[in-house]
Design a protein that fits this description.
6-stranded mixed β-sheet; 35% helix; binds adenosine-5'-diphosphate; single chain; 8 helices
Length: 230
């Protein structure tokens, strides 16, 4: 099943910048899909369509084979299915403590306090950040912030996680911790979509690769199709 799909999606920013042109993209359930491309290619713009933050100028977004609906309730619903981790964790972490940050989403959808606490504990454990509950997020390292941002998404229990440049700016150890977490989540059935410009890492984990340039998908397939034998 295609859990996430775009059909002929084009997008122009309000200032007229064309950012996406006729993009056809899909992720099947349980896959890891990598989106590769240089800065300004349209990766972030595409991701912002996946949970309705941006609405296509033309074309359609499908989540679990249902076209995205843009009323408030449907958007709340889709954000529980598709979690987006932004490139810069400072765009995502704004509460005074780590625990409050991770609790934000679950509280926002009206879960009971007990359930919220349970999810915060579980999610922080999953990303190796148990014990940091009371720390202010801005005191953490880049890799730790990234992991807290991932915990905040996990606390919503989405089936699909979309991560914009999850390893950018991290040292090799921080990057490998993130990849390890993503690999584990995928083993448990989560569909994962990531953007990166780190070509070397892609064949190690992705089952499908898309290359985007100047708002167009220019290549897609398995890592072997796209890069040849590696
Ligand atoms: P990437 O994530 O691959 O670096 P983006 O999706 O951020 O690429 O950008 C795609 C194109 O859209 C670029 O030309 C970029 O300058 C432009 N763009 C991004 N955000 C905006 C915005 N808010 N307003 C106008 N143009 C934008
Ligand atoms: P990324 O590579 O993750 O897309 P960028 O550096 O392209 O990051 O963009 C950082 C921020 O600036 C984003 O919020 C993006 O929407 C905005 N932005 C990028 N290009 C433009 C632009 N041409 N006009 C207005 N905002 C832009």
């Amino acid at each position: 099943m295609n859990v996430l799909e775009t059909k002929e999606v084009s997008y122009k920013y309000p200032d007229g910048t064309p950012a996406l042109k006729d993009v056809n993209f899909h992720a099947s359930k349980g896959e890891i899909v990598a989106l590769l491309g240089p800065n300004g290619a349209g990766k972030s713009t595409l991701f912002l369509h996946f949970n309705g933050i941006l609405r296509p100028s033309s074309g359609k977004i499908m989540v679990e084979e249902v076209p995205l609906n843009y009323n408030k309730k449907a958007i709340m619903n889709v954000r529980q299915k598709v979690g987006i981790v932004f490139q810069n964790p400072d765009d995502q972490l704004f509460a005074p403590t780590v625990a409050e940050d991770v609790a934000f989403g679950p509280l926002n959808i009206g879960l009971e306090q007990d359930e919220v606490e349970k999810r915060v504990t579980e999610s922080l454990e999953r990303v190796g950040m148990a014990g940091f509950e009371r720390k202010p997020p801005h005191h953490l390292s880049g890799g730790q912030k990234k992991r807290v941002a991932i915990a905040g998404i996990l606390a919503m229990r989405p089936g699909i996680m979309v991560l914009d440049e999850p390893t950018s700016g991290l040292d090799p150890k921080g990057a490998s911790q993130i990849l390890h977490i993503l690999h584990q989540l995928n083993q448990e059935g989560m569909t994962i979509v990531i953007s990166t410009h780190d070509v070397d890492l892609v064949p190690l984990y992705a089952s499908q690769v898309y290359i985007i340039s100047d708002g167009h998908i220019i290549k897609e397939g398995t890592p072997q199709d796209v890069f040849g034998d590696v």
